[in-house]
Specification:
With 216 residues, this protein is α/β, with parallel strands linked by helices. The protein has three domains: 2-75, no CATH class; 77-163, no CATH class; 171-212. It is 56% helix and 12% strand. It has helices at residues 21-39, 79-91, 98-106, 116-127, 133-150, 153-162, 167-186, 191-198, 202-212, and strands spanning 2-4, 10-16, 43-49, 60-62, 65-67, 70-73. 21% of the residues are buried.
């Protein structure tokens, strides 16, 4: 994940869940050099290793090139304790600090007794109890976005299923359905078939097509 910072430099966050640190760093240095070649901006890279990685892997050394990005080891964070602290804070109606929000989003990557995909679900369920609607939606969106970086497609689909139909999730799903409609129309599928695929009424599909300026 790459962010443009206020000082016009890039922050590159890389998530590594396995133990092949050499291959992961090779990918990272490739991203960084291409970013710099394209835009000429300095790139600050932080590699976030999940709790599966117990100690900092060595820097990547390739002859004259040494690549040694900043490292965060999530094994150093007690996910059980942090989850309980955040849960108590949210249940009591306290406002979350920026650090609290960051901890909430990264909870599934921490050292924890619960499987990561289950904790990802519990994290989003906990975020849904935040009183501030803006902060709640930001936490849900960030937690879901980060989860898509470290969970496989099957786990992501299960994560979608357990989410209640919040306005935010509905927006995500509608965006996906719109993309599906575009692809289906391009492939020449009839509207009736698209309706079955997207589970939308034919009238809704035609309405969306009109709003998007799509002719059929």
């Amino acid at each position: 994940m790459v962010f443009l910072l206020e000082d016009n430099t890039y922050l590159h966050l890389a998530f590594v869940t396995g133990h092949d640190s050499k291959q992961a760093l090779l990918k990272c240095v490739g991203y960084d050099t291409r970013l710099y070649e394209r835009d000429g901006r300095l790139v600050h890279t932080v590699v976030i290793y999940t709790a599966d990685v117990k100690k900092k892997p060595p820097a990547l050394t390739i002859g004259t090139l040494t690549y040694d990005p900043a490292v965060i080891l999530m094994v150093d964070y007690d996910g059980d304790t942090i989850f309980t602290e955040l849960e108590n804070k949210i249940k009591s109606g306290q406002d979350l600090t920026d650090i609290d929000v960051l901890k909430l989003v990264l909870l599934p990557l921490m050292n924890h007794t619960m499987p990561r995909h289950n904790l990802a679900t519990d994290t989003i369920e906990l975020a849904k109890k935040i009183l501030d609607p803006k902060k709640k939606n930001a936490c849900i969106a960030a937690a879901f976005g980060f989860a898509s970086k470290y969970l496989d497609d099957e786990k992501i689909n299960k994560l979608r299923e357990v989410l209640e139909m919040t306005e935010l999730v509905e927006s995500f799903m509608m965006d996906e359905k719109i993309e599906t409609i575009k692809v289906a129309l391009k492939e020449g599928l009839p509207i009736a078939s698209i309706a079955r695929i997207t589970r939308l009424d034919e009238s809704k599909i035609k309405e969306l097509m009109k709003e998007l300026g799509i002719e059929y």
